[in-house]
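Appendix B. Chain record.
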Amino acid sequence: MLETRELDVAVLPLHAVPPRFEARRLYDEDFVVAMRKGHAFARAPNEAAFCRSRHLLVSLDGNSVGFVDEMLAKRGLERRVAVTVPTFMMALDCLSKSDLIAALPRRLVRRQAARFGLVFVDLPLKRKSDSIEAITTKAAMKDAGIAWLIETAVALLAPTRQSNRPA
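Structure tokens predicted for this chain:
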């Protein structure tokens, strides 16, 4: 979609991009387990309870296997994905009205927890944080508006880089 200009900028956790793209690191993100307030998992968050719980998975294409399933499979474990939804915001709404749990980005859940009546705990699996990147084509970076958008996102979301700028 970036190459056909259907999309100007993608924000994704990618480690490497082909040379025709430009990627700018925005921030590091990790995942937490989100659920409605009062959910039993919040009182005793452990790996066994995680695997027994019914899960919601955010998946654009409806695939019911995600990175959590891959991590569990390496340990000989599995979870029950009961529902897939295409967006994180839809996931938050579904969690608020059900007994499902979901692995979601910490920043999103922290900002939206009160609005949706959610709580969150650390993921009971050890996982490295993802580097979230703003990605576009090198050709698109010649568009002053797109270049400005990416530079503004970097300045706003990567505060450690700002600390090196003169006041």
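Further analysis of this model is presented in Appendix C.
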